[in-house]
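Hey L., structure's done. Input below.
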Amino acid sequence: MRYSDLHQFLQTSGAVLAKGPVAMIFVEDLVEVDSTIRHHQNAGFRAVLVFAPDALDLPNDLEKSVHRISFDATAAAVVDAVNQVIEAAPGTWLYYCFNAEYLFHPFCESRTVGELLAFQTEERRDAVLSYVVDLYADDLDQFPNAVSLDHACLDKSGYYAHGRKGPDGDPLDRQLDFFGGLRWRFEEHVPANGHKIDRVSLFKAKPGLKLRPNHTFNDEEYNTYSCPWHHNITVTVASFRTAKALKTNAGSKHDVHSFNWHNTTKFQWSSQQLLDLGLMEPGQWF
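Output:
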């Protein structure tokens, strides 16, 4: 189904948002849009909303199976769109990402995202912290936009965290700012406010909840990595977005000749690899 804008979708598709999980995919360019949609459909989302420019040409099966909304994905527009969907879908689990990003959760090969969220709900948690882990092609001469599903690599180490402080300078309970990957290794080409790799990408909508531009929410409990009494599930968003930007932006593309270094390893497209590398946490879910 196609919609001329988000307003038309929200006016006519209340049933779509009545029960989740619902995925929102924001299309910034035309790279790997099909694979992003299929990955999240296969993950078990009940509905997929595709916010995309009119220039996007989808295969017929995808065109029929998603809710496509005409959209220009600037940063401010994305935050506003997520908040409008939150307001329209109280009680529904939502997820957001960009094209060429792929959600992985513990045991995703055999358990759906719906099962994950059912467990998280039993844990009395209304959000799931995700780490956006950079993917990049192993050969930038062969793949000049740094994107290749078959030749994808990631950093196997080099990730770290700092305690997060509130506006008053005091530490925030159970909150950390996470860093690493290409945003750390090529930080001179990344805006100062774009170095973090944490994102609360899976969350339950509720009245008054607002996404902020830094990928956190106005309810501080949503931004915590775990509850007070034990570890909770975290997930990974495997993303070509940073690599793609570094190789297409005029200010950096001529300075980056390879993303490979001594901690590069081939991405196996498996949850077990991400668990082994410590890039997500199963919590009490076994």
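The mean pLDDT is 95. The first strand starts at residue 2 and ends at 3.

-- N.
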